[in-house]
Amino acid sequence: MSTVRSEKEAVVAEIRGKIESASAVIITEYRGLTVQHLAALRGQLRGLGTEYRVYKNTLSRFAAREAGIEGLDDLFVGPTAIAFVDGDLAASAKTLKDFAKTNPLLVLRGGAVSNKVVSAEYIQVLADLPSREAMLSQFAGLLLALPRNMAYGLKALIDQKEAA
């Protein structure tokens, strides 16, 4: 009996470690998805720096509490999988959302971002954000436009003063 207990403690420690090292966790229900569907989803997420794993709900609840996240207990019911996000959170959320569109058996339940519990709706909003690369590109474009626009404004002001 102590071997079973120590195995469970080891799994709880493993889950807790993954939660603590991830920037976010997204909890999903996968009831009715085939092994092939789950493998395809895992592959897509792995490319984004996200690990998608199935653990026993009871052990996941203990691990979340040990990691200092309260309020996830209600999400660990039925067939549940956890996405441990280390990469681009918006891209991982988008991948899960897009997968759920073509595979309605996958249901986003919610999760935690920076140890704060978030709803499924919050995950949906994150999924609609542009990727990190797209946002950086937009920001770089803005930074390039600022000095140019300022130069045009100064030139117009100088021209106006000279005309007066």
CATH H-level superfamily of the largest domain: Ribosomal protein L10, N-terminal RNA-binding domain
- Average per-residue pLDDT, rounded, comes to 90
In total, how many domains does the architecture comprise? 2
Structural class: alpha+beta
Instruction: Give the terminus-to-terminus CA distance.
Output: 93 Å
Number of strands: 5
- Which bin fits the share of residues in helices? 55-70%
H-E string: HEHEHEHEEHH
CATH topology of the largest domain: Alpha-Beta Plaits
CATH level 1 name of the largest domain: Alpha Beta
Strand arrangement within the widest β-sheet reads 2-3-1-4-5
- What is the makeup of the main sheet? 5 strands, antiparallel
List the total number of helices. 6
* Computed CA radius of gyration, to the nearest angstrom: 23 Å
Residue share in β-strands:
15-25%
Low-confidence stretches: none
CATH architecture of the largest domain: 2-Layer Sandwich
How would you sum up this structure, described in words?
This protein is of the alpha+beta class. The chain folds into 2 domains: 2-129, Ribosomal protein L10, N-terminal RNA-binding domain (Alpha-Beta Plaits, 2-Layer Sandwich); 130-164. Helix content is 59%, strand content 17%. The protein has 6 helices and 5 strands. It has helices spanning 2-21, 35-46, 57-66, 89-102, 120-128, 132-163, and strands at 24-29, 50-54, 80-85, 107-113, 116-119. It has a 5-stranded antiparallel sheet.
